[in-house]
Design goal:
The protein is α+β, with helices and mostly antiparallel strands. The protein has helices at about 70-85, 90-110, and strands spanning about 10-15, 20-25, 30-35. A hairpin with a 4-residue loop joins strand 2 (about 20-25) and strand 3 (about 30-35).
Length: about 130
C-alpha cells in the first residue's frame, strides 16, 4: 500500500488539551500522525491560537496582559457580579451587556489580521 501523502487527507484534532496533526490514509482506512517522510523541507504548519491571559493576583499593582482598550471589560464583569450580589439585577444586566460588547470587540481584535496575514479567523469553541 502507498504511504504517499497524496493518498492522505491532512487532519488535526485536540485531545486531552493537546493538538494532534496527522493524516487520514484513504488506502489503509486509518488515521496516522505525520512521519518524517510525510513532511518536506519546504512544508509549513501554521498554528493559530488564543493565549489565555494570566490570572490576576490579589494586589492592585498587577496589570492584565491584554490590550489597554479592553481593561474596561474586566471592570464591567466585576461590576456585574457585584451588582448581582447586592440584588441590583437591573445594574447587573447593564454591566453584563457592556461586558459582552467588550468581549465581542476583543474577539474581533484578536482574530483580524493579527497573524501577519489579511485573514479573518472564524472562531470555534471546544
Amino acid at each position: 500500500m502507498s504511504s504517499d501523502i497524496s493518498s492522505k487527507i491532512k487532519v488535526w484534532w485536540i485531545k486531552y488539551s493537546k493538538l494532534g496533526i496527522g493524516a487520514y490514509d484513504n488506502t489503509e482506512n486509518e488515521m496516522k500522525s505525520f512521519s518524517s517522510t510525510d513532511i518536506g523541507a519546504g512544508d509549513q504548519i501554521r498554528v493559530l491560537f488564543r493565549k489565555k491571559p494570566t490570572k490576576l493576583a490579589v494586589t492592585l499593582t498587577d496589570k492584565p496582559d491584554l490590550p489597554e482598550q479592553f481593561h474596561k471589560g474586566i471592570m464591567y464583569r466585576v461590576m456585574e457580579q457585584l451588582s448581582a450580589r447586592k440584588g441590583d439585577y437591573q445594574g447587573a444586566r447593564y454591566y453584563q451587556a457592556e461586558y459582552e460588547k467588550c468581549l465581542a470587540m476583543a474577539k474581533k481584535y484578536t482574530n483580524k489580521g493579527r497573524d501577519g496575514s489579511h485573514t479573518s479567523i472564524a472562531l470555534h469553541e471546544y
